[in-house]
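Anyone up for a design puzzle?
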């Protein structure tokens, strides 16, 4: 009896340690910057720049060659965009964005969604947005909750689950205030924004087309990679997941597989650098293969020797052509 009591106490202590360690990893690994990074503050669609050393979308000296890279060919006129505020359905989140209404467009519109720990003022958000806008589309860029100028709720991301609701709030705003039907709205999601885009596809079946830059596929595997990227042992991901569940948050409530299973005749394309150090290129291969097993065609555009979102810079013209062609064909 004594032995069983000791064993039970040991397991209880280990469980508590497991959860506490996981909670720390969860709180650290999902923490995002509520606000605009200093190196993004001057960026506007009319004038934006790549960030300096150690502030790029991927780590290491490989970013250094892009510091000060000239993007002025992709700037737009100051009158091309206006700041907007969008309330969610509960009226407890205010999303801040830029509305770029194109005088050449009828109603074809693309919502551009940023990734984790960044905002709409990042060059890798404005650049694709301007590519799309310059080709005749309306564009809406938004700061997701806990990012940029939008409401700071808890300074954490939810792996696309709550962020997808922000996308749907943006869609509703376009429906109500710009009179644009959901069937004429596409989404370009970047990295973490790609996850939110796919989750939103399950919640709104009327959205027709989804362009994804460096998406994840297997959340467990990607989360483990992210935990390692953040400097923790990979095995702590499991404890972090359950710590989040105890806080009432299910980071896998709607999975990427769920999104593919529900996509039906809607269209998806992927753009991904094969040297991505943040979101491994294998994610896109696996996503395409899974979709194929379900009879769904997903076009993968590979950018050779490109790191995370670097294809925007290594093959800028090709990137633009891919984006524009996709939305021309699917909206």
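Challenge accepted. My sequence:
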């Amino acid at each position: 009896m004594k032995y069983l009591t000791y064993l039970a106490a040991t397991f209880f202590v280990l469980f508590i340690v497991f959860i506490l360690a996981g909670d720390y990893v969860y709180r650290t690994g999902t923490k995002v910057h509520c606000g605009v990074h200093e190196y993004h503050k001057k960026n506007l669609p009319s004038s934006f720049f790549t960030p300096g050393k150690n502030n790029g979308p991927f780590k290491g000296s490989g970013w250094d060659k892009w510091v000060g890279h000239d993007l002025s060919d992709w700037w737009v006129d100051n009158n091309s965009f206006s700041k907007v505020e969008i309330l969610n359905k509960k009226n407890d989140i205010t999303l801040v964005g830029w509305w770029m209404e194109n005088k050449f467009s009828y109603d074809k519109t693309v919502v551009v969604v940023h990734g984790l720990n960044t905002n709409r003022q990042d060059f890798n958000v404005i650049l694709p947005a301007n590519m799309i806008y310059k080709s005749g589309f309306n564009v809406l860029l938004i700061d997701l909750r806990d990012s940029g100028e939008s409401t700071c709720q808890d300074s954490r991301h939810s792996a696309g689950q709550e962020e997808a609701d922000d996308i749907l709030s943006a869609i509703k705003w376009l429906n109500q205030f710009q009179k644009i039907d959901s069937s004429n709205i596409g989404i370009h999601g970047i990295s973490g924004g790609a996850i939110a885009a796919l989750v939103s596809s399950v919640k709104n079946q009327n959205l027709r087309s989804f362009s994804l830059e460096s998406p994840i596929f297997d959340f467990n595997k990607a989360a483990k990679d992210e935990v390692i990227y953040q400097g923790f042992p990979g095995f702590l991901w499991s404890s972090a997941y359950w710590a989040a569940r105890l806080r009432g948050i299910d980071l896998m409530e709607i999975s990427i597989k769920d999104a593919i299973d529900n996509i039906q005749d809607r269209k998806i394309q992927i753009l991904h650098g094969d040297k991505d150090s943040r979101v491994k290129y294998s994610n896109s291969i696996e996503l395409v293969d899974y979709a194929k097993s379900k009879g769904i065609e997903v076009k993968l555009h590979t950018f050779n020797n490109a790191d995370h979102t670097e294809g925007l810079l290594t093959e800028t013209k090709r990137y633009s052509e891919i984006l524009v062609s996709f939305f021309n064909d699917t909206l």
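A detail worth pointing out: The chain has two domains: 1-30+218-251, 36-214+254-330.
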